[in-house]
Known about the structure:
Elements: E1 12-19, E2 22-25, E3 30-33, E4 39-43, E5 48-52, E6 58-64, H1 72-83, E7 89-94, E8 97-108, E9 111-121, E10 136-144, H2 151-159, H3 173-178, E11 184-188, E12 195-199, H4 202-217, H5 226-242, H6 246-256, H7 263-275, E13 278-279, H8 291-297, E14 299-300, H9 302-315, E15 320-325, E16 330-335, E17 343-346, E18 349-354, E19 376-378
Parallel strand pairs: 13-14
Antiparallel strand pairs: 1-4, 2-3, 4-5, 5-6, 6-10, 7-8, 8-9, 9-10, 11-12, 15-16, 15-19, 16-18, 17-18
Amino acid sequence: MHKPLFFPLLFLILPVAAQAMQISFPSWGFFIDLPEEYELADGDMKSVYSFASPAGAIVNIRAYQAGAYQSVEALAGAIQKQLNNRGEMDVFEYRNKKAVILELDFSLGNDGVNGFGLCLELDRQIASDAASGTPFLLALAYADKADGDLTALHLSCLDSIAPDAGSLRTPGPIVTYSFPIGSRKTQPLAGNAGEAAFFEYDAEAAQFVVDREDLLLRRYVQTPLWKDAWMRFYRTIYRDSFERIQNAAFALERSWNIPALDNRALASAALKWVQGFRYERDLEGSDFVNLVTAAVEGRGDCDSRALLLAVILEQAGVSAGIMVSAEYSHAMGIVDVDGVGVRIPLDGKNWLVAETTVHVDIGLIGQSMSDLKKWIGIRFE
């Protein structure tokens, strides 16, 4: 397994490896949500971290204080030279700041290595010291060429990076690079629920994320990591879709004209809307219809509807999530509202269930699926 590439630092081997999950780095202000197979393997625990996968994949992260480099391009250029990298690099804009993506293709010992790298600007107010300038984040995701095509794994890792808290509900840097925003356009929403504005490539970008994460999820189906991987699948799509659906959520709330503070009525209206969708599955690919397409075309499987319901309600300030079951091969919404109905415990609350594929009232669940021990509740905060 390769050592980290951030020369000339001497790394300390950690006595205990930590399993990957959504991780916050409060001293620097950034976040990362790695696939479950990665474990923290090396680093100084201050500005340098290395995560390793049994498959041979590595994710190296280094944060640089203000003044270390004059620009994100200068940092990327230094890394290109340090690694003698043969891959290309490209500058793009992420959340109104410059960023650089690198295609990694270099030699390490006797091995050929490939993957991708990312250079991002960090928040000056959080990651700051006496020096003037901008702090930066460098992330490299790579593996031996002999380990096979791990492109989806590498890209998912880098796309999970949020350089600040405001990025936690916006598309990640990789999908932003791959799908420029384009022009704004208005489209009718399903069910005669008015119109909403979307960016030109929102649906294509959202589907790219769904397909990539579905491909990655298949790595874990027959492993002990399947449950955590399943939860990350939905977390990733939720993050990517939240901002894309924002205008649609506002339009829907206006069309339902629910009195202020009546959260149960709002949740019921949103549930009725997704219950009216056409049931659809893709037996050759991912069953999951991206949320932009689902909202516009009114179609999708149970988990597409449940996640869309959660996004819409969260946009309206109503706490929501989803519940999924491998035993029942089903998904439903969960909502934190008052009133009677079946509830599932999660994070210290009892959440009201919301069946999205049958025309029933909120709080009702079919008798054949009523064993709550067979459900996994998922929140996105």
